[in-house]
Amino acid sequence: MTDNRRSTADSWLTLLLAGGFEIGYALSVGGSHGFTRLQWSLVAVVFFLLTLWALSVALRTIDVGIGYAVWAGIGAAGAALLGPVFFDETLTPAKTLWLGVVIAGVVWLKLADRPERTEEPATGPRRSQDFAARPQEPRAAER
Prior knowledge:
The protein has helices at about 5-30, 40-60, 65-85, 95-110, 130-135.
């Protein structure tokens, strides 16, 4: 795997982590009851800082529009799915259907971000160091 592909894969994993932190943030904000409960409020602040940090790291190599949509989709779907587990919320069949649409959209965005395959030269990719190490031939005007 090339460094560029590894960097892209790492960015997507970091974006998934940011989405997990976003779920934690959304749930802890719900538990804070408008930031009136200190413990939940402190947890919310920690998750908020973690999600912003992870999102900013992921967006170094992922397009902002794609990354933000995936991050928001993960947070929204995760909070909606886990809300009934932690709080007195309901998950109706209609909500489940539309959450499925959100999740499908997030997956589709990820698949759309795949770079197109290009054939590399038989000698392999060239590095900028290779060009710097070669002596430059004089231009026609300098001869």
